Amino acid sequence: MRFEIITIFPGFFTGIFDHGIVRRAQAEGLVAVTAHDLRTFTHDRHRTVDDRPFGGGEGMVLKPEPLAKALESLGIQVKADRGEMQKQILRSAHEWRSPQEDQVGGGETRVILLSAQGRPFTQTVAREVAALKRVVLICGRYEGVDERINQLYCDMELSIGDYVLSGGELAAAVVVDAVMRLVPGVLGNEASGEFESFGVADAEISRSEEGVPRSQHGAGGLLDYPHYTRPAEFGGLRAPEVLLNGDHQQIRKWRREQQLRKTLRNRPDLLERAALSPEDRSILETIQRDSE
Known about the structure:
The chain is α/β, with parallel strands linked by helices. It has 2 domains: about 180 residues, Alpha/beta knot; about 100 residues, Trp Operon Repressor, Chain A. About 30% of the residues lie in helices and about 15% in strands. The strands form 3 sheets. It has a 5-stranded parallel beta sheet with strand order 2-1-6-5-7, sandwiched between helices. The chain has a two-stranded antiparallel ribbon with strand order 3-4. A two-stranded antiparallel sheet has the order 8-9. α1 links the parallel β1 and β2. α7 crosses α8. The longest helix is centred in the last third of the chain and has 19 residues. The N and C termini lie far apart (about 50 Å).
């Protein structure tokens, strides 16, 4: 999978992807990350990438011309032309589908604008993006990007949270990290991406340890359960006995209850769309009743 990042600060990414899983994924050829300097695509002596906003107001806005040239240098056409070209390819193969039927596909490129006005970036969105082969990330700066770039070129506008950053570089790093760990082969244990916060439900998990009952549920949109490791006692606190007795069924039950407790306490909004079983709902009712 390839990530192309358009930014006025390419040096920001010099060291940030040189560590941990991202570094290993690049070394093994599973992921490639390239930062492109937006100022390279200017033609004035000051390498100007911004200008005052029409209508007045504070701050500056990234100009459309350098961004368009940067995208064109990556072979990105305006969306209208891309759509027509895709139709021609599909017609020739007798496989044309309407835009409404078009789904994110493994061989496609998507252009993503990072901004505070975008759709929330979630684990579900990360899984959508991970199905692509190439992602172009535009890092906003100042007051943002000329909206015509969004309208003409961008397939998606994403925000990593309900707050404002100085620019899209940090957001781009977050998106790359969250997405690339879902690319097959990147994680040492493929199941690691399934059994964690915001992960998929049990019904979507096919892996199981042969002969050994699985000791955790798929998150199904809930938060992860608490984790413990050696030593069994630390700071006067002992790890829960249920985790030390080797009973996988009891461990699985305990972990599910802890997922529900933590989600109810920290992110109750997630419960509205989580994949909950009748047993989960019964546990929740008990937790809520005991807390009253």
